């Protein structure tokens, strides 16, 4: 995982995209990283071939208009964050392929979580990049009822852990984010209740919080202790639940400044790029989600 590359922020100049740029710029400033503002577009001549009105604009003029928008956006970011180094790039071609290429040299890719409805799903571009980007991906959406993305000062960074290598990498990155943001860190492990072998439903929940000899409890405590040792200034709390992991993480995201998850858990088969829990959490979370992939 690179730590010396830029924070790449994708923009489509929409209203939601402005929030994505604000979040990405603040995060880059906290990391002391440069920003690369990117817009990727499909060549108008390609789209016109399949349209009813094949009117192809002058490509050079079209690109200059978009570059002007990118530069105006850069000027806005620099005005709000004078210490940031901000560059712009216009890329022609499929959006997913262009941004995936940039992710290879980036320390973070920041995208808007586009969708529709009261609990919007993520857009197709964001969904594909969460799966295929080679760096951590932040999907930005406003918390429920807050169009500006503001969070209470006490809102924690929440990370889901299940003992997988991906979740341990995610926990370490979450601790770094909590330290940068001066927020507490909430380490959450949830395991679903096992089915009743007699076919009557589920076995009653087994409260691991009061069973220190339980392997799950011991492993989660070890993770929390490692994070406290590495980041003494961060208040680390541990939450062990008998609950569906997706439900527990989505519920926690409603009160989180940032939710961090690994790309794959223990249940994901080898070669799977995005696990089922991560996919559902990304789709249903209430705020910003950071998806971390272990590429070692």
TrEMBL record:
Ranges for domain UspA come to: 7-141, 157-293
Specify one Pfam family. Answer: Usp
* Record-stated family: Belongs to the universal stress protein A family.
This protein is called Universal stress protein
Q: Name its species.
A: Cellulomonas soli
């Amino acid at each position: 995982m690179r730590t010396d590359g830029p924070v790449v922020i994708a923009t489509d100049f929409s209203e939601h995209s402005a929030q994505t740029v604000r979040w990405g710029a603040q995060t880059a400033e906290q990391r002391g990283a440069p920003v690369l503002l990117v817009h990727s577009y499909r060549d108008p001549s390609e789209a016109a071939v399949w349209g009813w009105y094949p009117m192809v604009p002058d490509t050079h003029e079209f690109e200059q208009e978009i570059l002007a928008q990118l530069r105006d956006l850069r000027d806005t970011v620099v005005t709000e964050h004078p210490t940031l180094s901000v560059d712009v790039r216009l890329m022609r071609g499929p959006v997913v392929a262009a941004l995936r290429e940039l992710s290879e040299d980036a320390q973070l890719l920041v995208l808007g979580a586009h969708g529709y409805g009261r609990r919007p799903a993520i857009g197709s571009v964001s969904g594909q990049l969460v799966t295929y980007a080679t760096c951590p991906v932040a999907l930005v959406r406003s918390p429920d009822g807050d169009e500006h993305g503001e969070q209470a000062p006490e809102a924690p960074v929440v990370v889901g852990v299940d003992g997988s290598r991906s979740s341990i990498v995610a926990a370490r990155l979450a601790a770094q984010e909590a330290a940068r943001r001066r927020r507490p860190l909430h380490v959450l492990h949830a395991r679903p209740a096992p089915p009743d072998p007699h076919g009557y439903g589920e076995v009653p929940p087994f409260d691991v919080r009061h069973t220190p000899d339980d392997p799950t409890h011991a492993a989660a405590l070890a993770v929390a202790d490692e994070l406290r040792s590495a980041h003494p200034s961060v208040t680390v709390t541990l939450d062990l639940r008998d609950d569906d992991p997706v439900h527990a993480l989505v519920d926690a995201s409603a009160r989180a400044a940032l939710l961090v998850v690994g790309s794959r858990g223990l249940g994901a088969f080898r070669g799977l790029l995005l696990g089922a829990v991560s996919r559902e959490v990304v789709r249903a979370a209430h705020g910003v989600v950071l998806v971390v992939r272990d590429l070692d």
